[in-house]
Amino acid sequence: MGYLARGIERVGGRRIIFALGGLYIVIAASFPITLAVGERTVNDVFIISLLVGASGLALSYGGYRLPETDVRPDLYHVVAGWCLRAIEVMVGVLLFIALVTNMSDPLANFLILPALASVAGLGMGYHDGQAQTRAVDAEEYSRELERYQTIVETVNDGIYVVNGDGHFTMVNEAYAEMLGYDREELLGSHTSFVAEDAETLADEIRRDLVADDSETGTYEATLRTASGEQIEAEATMALLPTRDSDGHDRVAVVRDVTERNERERQLERRNEQLDNFASLLAHELRNPVNIGQIYSQQLPQEKANPQAVEYVTEAFDRIEDMIEVMLLVARGREAVSECSTVQLADAARQAWDEADTSEATLEVTTDRTIEVDDTYIRHLFRNLFENAVEHGGASVTITVGDLPTGFYVADDGCGIEPDKQKVVFETGYTSSASEGGMGLGLTFVQEMADVYGWDCSVTESTDGGAQFQFENVTSTHV
């Protein structure tokens, strides 16, 4: 870049154009003064003023409209440079003519010709600026395209683009490797080359993304690899703008989900097996339990040990409750029968009478009424009460109280360490395995909260013990 170009860029190309236009307009307005000191006619002065002023107006208007053209702002100095170069050339020509010829009115020629030349330079500058703008834009587009190509090739997921007819127009290396093909084998081929039911899938995509005007959609399809194997793939698709308004090119990000789907199917099979096992076990347990309950009620109270009969009856009832609890853990929401209106205070006191609470103390401050299965809520309280006695000591005090959107069960025992407050709900977790603990009590508590949509958590109580909280519990009003 020369000194002139650097100077123009420093001042500002648009300012230079405005300055030239303003200069010529001032000259045109003041030139009639020369009638008093020269030999020009009124007609000559008018023509000179008109041409110089028109040039000034053209320059000013061109500078004003410059931002509306496709010339980049950082290339305005190119347009101004052409204006000044045209003036330089024309001044040089006039000086040459003045030296070698006789000019009748060199001042008039000096004013007219450079003014007209600057307008020509403006036009040439526009074209040059536009050309350089296109060159710079093309270079920037090339760099941007290269960046996107790098991104597309770097990601681990497969990416491809298909045109409106369903033919591949771009695939990345990850997609080619996923299917075991070379990219050249896929480019230009139809999607049916690798996808089962490609036409049906294409119709669904057009219906979702075109007809319903959705931005993206996720679809699953079975793909054939080069080795003849089949894989399950999940693709997130979006439409791309095309030159043809009737075309609908689309881009897809594809992921092999064969292993994920197989794990889900295995989990479903295991859940089904667990459900079947729980149902079978519940059925087999209920028969002897029901028989035991019937015969225990028929024992003659005056001959048998009344306390023993009571213990046997209570044991059978407890087993019946455990069957219901086991079904809840195994089946989740499907095991929930019709709910009833339950006073939390009554349920807590009934659970307290059923629990082995030794010398512990129960304080009930709640008056909340909720819709829940009576057996489940009593078993929840019983688990929490026995857990508090087991870890807090025989003389622990347990409180059942209200929260803004639920209730809590708190004790004044030793509490639960912060790093264990989340794992206590996990199946099998127990701190009393040596005493026969199976780690299912708090699992039931968490499972029940999930079934009813409650938020279950454990924190430290105000007395330093453990506090189990149940929030987002729907209350009823009686």
Task: Walk me through this protein's architecture.
This protein has 478 residues and is of the alpha+beta class. It folds into four domains: 3-150, no CATH class; 155-256, 2-Layer Sandwich (Beta-Lactamase), CATH 3.30.450.20; 263-331, Orthogonal Bundle (Helix Hairpins), CATH 1.10.287; 336-471, Histidine kinase-like ATPase, C-terminal domain (Heat Shock Protein 90, 2-Layer Sandwich). It is 54% helix and 15% strand. It is built from 13 helices and twelve strands. A five-stranded antiparallel β-sheet has the order 2-1-5-4-3, with helices on both faces. The chain has a five-stranded mixed β-sheet with strand order 7-9-10-12-11, covered by helices on one side. A two-stranded antiparallel ribbon has the order 6-8. Strand 11 and strand 12 form a beta hairpin. Helix 2 runs antiparallel to helix 3 (42-65). The longest helix has 49 residues, at 106-154. The radius of gyration is 45 Å and the shape is elongated.
